Automatic annotation (TrEMBL):
It comes from the Bacteria. This is Tetratricopeptide repeat protein. Residues 1-67 are annotated as: Disordered. CDD domains: ybbN.
Length: 339
């Protein structure tokens, strides 16, 4: 399925978004994730057919079905619920209609993830039948369509009913890059939270002081704080991943991504350029490209050069974490290149 077109987020007189337009991704900026095709959904699919989107007059305040991190959005509240909120919390918008069967399959997945992430993103649902002008202004052409808004910047995500694992991958990538842009707040629950959520403690961000320093752009401070944790607890996975992210941001700070990629493509034997280009690709939200670039360089290198490239690739694996499916795939490719 083709990637959704770049949306035209309307202002509705509340927010000036005239500067927003599609533009090349730079390191640390919100990327458009790579196009992914939704697999065909056969009858009797394991996804099943979930409940229809529900709501009503008070759905915007209380969330759907009591979900405290879901809000029904209309033309009237788009400016406040989406645009204003997106300055501090990523907003993921689900465009749906009551007649759309794939929408009914995707809806429970989106709402489950919104509940699981406990306000790290706000899920906004827009009934395109009830808000036809809004859907037309944004450029919605098929349903379901999922896009995000971060810092009032539209981020096309995907179309169609994807499996939960694939949707989760989009959400994780969105949150990672949103944090690099300083949009890492937590949405306040709408209405009354379900019993499980209401009684649970507020989730704790691992090594919050180091994380906050990174989000604020104080990279040297964040590096020192993560390094101090690892000095005491070398097996602390959260600190290792945090340190890898900070060091990646340090390496791409001030780098022109177009120049970095052009240089590496024109001079593949320049291994410093290859490593920098891979950094740019990972920081820009396309880690598969960076991993592939380094694996191919490793395949044709030897000796100390090969070791340096391998160590660099492992440091980029740490940015996403060992469990990320893209890292798992790249590790297999690395093993093939080495052996």
């Amino acid at each position: 399925m083709a990637q959704p077109p770049s949306p035209r987020i309307p202002t509705h007189g509340a927010v000036d978004l005239s500067a927003l337009k599609a533009r090349p991704t730079r390191p640390g900026e919100i990327p458009e994730p790579p196009a992914r095709s939704a697999p065909p959904l056969a009858a009797g699919s394991a996804l099943g057919v979930g409940p229809e989107h529900t709501g009503g007059a008070d759905a915007g305040a209380a969330g759907h079905g009591g979900n405290p991190w879901v809000v029904e959005v209309t033309e009237e509240n788009f400016g406040t619920e989406v645009m204003t909120t997106s300055m501090t919390v990523p907003v993921v918008i689900d465009f749906w209609a009551g007649w759309c069967q794939p929408c009914k399959q995707l809806a429970p997945i989106m709402e489950k993830l919104a509940l699981e992430y406990e306000g790290r993103f706000l899920l906004a649902t827009i009934d395109t039948d009830a808000n036809q002008r809004l859907a037309q202004e944004i450029g919605i052409q098929s349903l379901p369509t999922i896009l995000a808004v971060v810092g009032q910047q539209p981020v096309p995500l995907f179309q169609g009913a994807l499996p939960e694992a694939q949707v989760r991958q989009y959400i994780e990538e969105l949150l990672r890059v949103a944090a690099m842009n300083g949009v890492a707040g937590r949405a306040a629950p709408r209405g009354s939270a379900p019993a499980a959520a209401a009684t649970s403690a507020e989730p704790v961000v691992p090594h919050a002081d180091a994380y906050e320093a990174m989000v604020a752009g104080n990279l040297d401070e964040a590096e020192a704080k993560y390094a101090a944790v690892l000095a005491d607890r070398p097996a602390d996975r959260d600190a290792a991943e945090g340190l890898a992210r900070v060091q990646l941001l340090q390496r791409v700070q001030g780098v022109d991504p177009d120049v970095a990629l052009k240089t590496a493509n024109e001079r593949p034997a320049d291994l410093a350029a290859v490593r920098l280009a891979a950094d740019v690709e990972v920081a820009s939200g396309i880690p598969e490209a960076g991993f592939t670039r380094l694996v191919e360089a490793i395949r044709v290198s030897g000796g100390d050069d090969r070791d340096a490239l391998r160590e660099h690739l492992l440091s980029l694996f740490a940015v996403l974490g060992a469990d990320d499916p893209r890292v798992i795939t790249a590790r297999r490719a690395l093993a093939s290149a080495l052996f």
